[in-house]
Amino acid sequence: MLTVENIRSLTDFRRHSKDFVKELQDSKRPMVLTVNGEAAVVVQDAKAFQAIQDKVFQLEEELARLKFEALRHEVQLGIDQANAGNFVAYTEETAGDLADRIKSKGRAQKVRHGE
User: Fold this and answer.
1) Distances (CA, A) of 94 to 20, 35, 82, 91, 104
2) In this structure, what DSSP letter does residue 33 have?
3) pLDDT tens for residues 55-82?
4) Across the strands, what pairs with 20?
C-alpha cells in the first residue's frame, strides 16, 4: 500500500540511500520516488518484489487451470447435449441466423462485464 510516508524525492533518496534501503527492507513496502514533484519510479526490497512476482505467477497458473476446466466443462456440456439430440442443425441459408445469435450473446456478455 502506498501512503504519504512511502513517497519521497529522488534527491532525498540519493542523499540518504542507506537509510532508505534499510527502511525498504524492514517495511517490505514499495516506495515512490518523485522528480520535480511527479512520481517517477518505484523502488522495493528485492525479496518483497520476488514474493509478489511468485504470487502473480501462481495466480496466473491457477487462472489458466480454471479457464481450462471451464472450457472442458463447456465442451462436455455441448457433447452431452448433442448426444441427447438437443441441437439445431444450420444450413447455408440459416447460418446467418447463427452468426447473429453468437454476436448478440457476445454483446450481452460485454454489457454484463462492463466492457
Assistant:
1) 68, 62, 19, 5, 16
2) E
3) 999 999 999 999 999 999 999 999 999 9
4) none
pLDDT digits (tens, 9 = 90+) for 80-109: 999 999 988 888 888 888 889 889 988 888
Work out the percent of the chain whose per-residue pLDDT is above 90: 70
Residue tagged 460485454 (cell numbers): 110
One-letter amino acid at 26 equals: D
d(CA 58, CA 60): 5
How far apart CA 44 and CA 81 sit, in angstroms, is 53
Q: What is the pLDDT of residue 97?
A: 86
Contacts for 33 with CB less than 8 Å, ≥ 6 apart: 8, 9, 10, 13, 39, 40, 41, 42, 43
> How many C-beta atoms surround the C-beta of residue 10 within 10 A?
14
To the nearest 10°, report the CA torsion of 41, 45, 46, 50: -90
